[in-house]
Amino acid sequence: MPKLILVWLTSILALVLSADGFATHEAPQTPGGSTTAARPSDGGSSAQAENRGIARPETIEGQKLTASEILKRLVPEEQAIAQRLFSLGAALGTDVSGPAAHIVSVNLAGRSITQADLEPIGRLRELRSLVLDGTPITDVGLVYIAPLLKLEQIYLNGTQITGAGLAILAELPNLRVIEAAGTRITDRGITFLVGLQHLESLALGGTLVTDQAMPEIGKIATLRFLDLRFTRIGTPGLRGLATLRLQYLNLMGTRVDDEGLGVLATMDSLRELYLPPAITDQGLKQLLALKDLEYLGLAGTRITDEGTRFLAGFANLKGLNLSGTQISDEGLKPLMALKNLQFVDLSRTLITDKAAQAVGSWEKLVYLNVDDTKVGDNFISQICQRLPLESLALARTLVTDAAAEALAKCRTLKLLIASDSRMTSDGVAALAKQMPQTQIVYNLSRSSKN
């Protein structure tokens, strides 16, 4: 059966905007600007594409078994705990390598749990991953997990924890990943994390941290992945991070300006970088020292066609986000030199059908977003047979039913988003029959699903 899906506009937007390049357990989006990244992430599957970003610590899930299988194989002391967690709606992962299984991961994201519900979790001494995103957990609840000395990953995005909660986490010596975006953590709480000798990934987006906390974060020498989006970080704070060997840094929605890019230019270990709105063409020029940069997010910045000549110097780029900038067809021409591009977001730019010349030159491109642009049927006819596209977003473009023949030749396409384009419902239905391998998302601002 053709996988034609008719959904609400809001559902489509959520699907597209979920591609922001972070770990599987994504923090809630913070209002204030686009958060689309230079490549899609698995957490949201907006492009149904493999996460080809910089290798971050993978979320530990353990062996996935049915509830009955887990209960049969668990050591006796964990069976009652598992039953309790199942009643709360938890997803459990187990280690079945030995004669008896142990619970190694617990996911309670979005569940209406109480602080006391964490008490049995604290008795799972083999637990390595705990996901509490979007729950009402506070610092009081974290007291119950203090005995989890083998815990490596904890996800607390959108909870009610504060710096006091970080003091508890600081006693867990094997922590490698802490995600606490959208919480009430302040500068004072960051000091507790300095003693964690294995911490690799820290997400603090949308918290209350400021420049004053950056020298403390700069002391965590093992840190490789840092998310500070939508915080009050500015250029002075970046100086406190200069000694870190970061591979990933997200500064979207911060107060960093062109001057701050001079600091970033010294961080030659960076492979993935997302920048805030104040950045201009001249600031971008300073980043040319980052020769190994693979993913660059410039959504909503003040980059213009003039600045794309600097972008052409990043020969290793695999992902580039220019969404919401003033880039036009002319500005894309220098980017034809970027032969490794796989993920490109040109939504809400000034491009037209003439952009096909540059886009068509990116022979490795698998993800393309041209939502809210003036591209039309001619653009589609020029790129579809030339590129190995797996995901194509055409929402609110000039594309019509006349593009169906060209789209049908995109044999590698797994996801097509044509919401509010000029394609008709009949045209999309006919296209779906020609592309049974492709999920087509199309909406007319009404709720219906096939």
TrEMBL record:
Residues 1-19 form the signal peptide. InterPro entries: Leu-rich_rpt, LRR_dom_sf. GO terms for cellular component: SCF ubiquitin ligase complex. It comes from Thermogutta terrifontis. Pfam families: LRR_6. Transmembrane segments: none annotated. Residues 31-49 have a biased composition (Polar residues). Residues 25-55 are annotated as: Disordered. GO terms for biological process: SCF-dependent proteasomal ubiquitin-dependent protein catabolic process. Keywords: Signal. Gene3D superfamilies: Ribonuclease Inhibitor. This is Alanyl-tRNA synthetase.
